[in-house]
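Weekly puzzle thread! Below is a chain. First person to post its structure in token form gets bragging rights.
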Amino acid sequence: MIYPQVWWPTPVRSPRRLPRLPKEPVPLLVEVLLQRLGWLLLATAAVSLVAALAKWVWLGALTGLGLMLGRSHWGWMPAPR
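Winning reply:
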């Protein structure tokens, strides 16, 4: 009879003391903050672009609806009486 193999991770001994951090935590913090600011600006620009496109699509739909209903002042279709 074949028994299934049982696997478990071997315990890893923790080191006596943790390795020291590099001596430059402030420039690293500035770099991370600038990176997050860049992503925030990129997301803001993307949302603004989508909003502008949606505005023109919405205005175009309203204009097309107005032309279809014959309410335009160009007189392409007379308004219903």
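Puzzle host: Confirmed. Bonus trivia for everyone else. Helices lie at 25-68.
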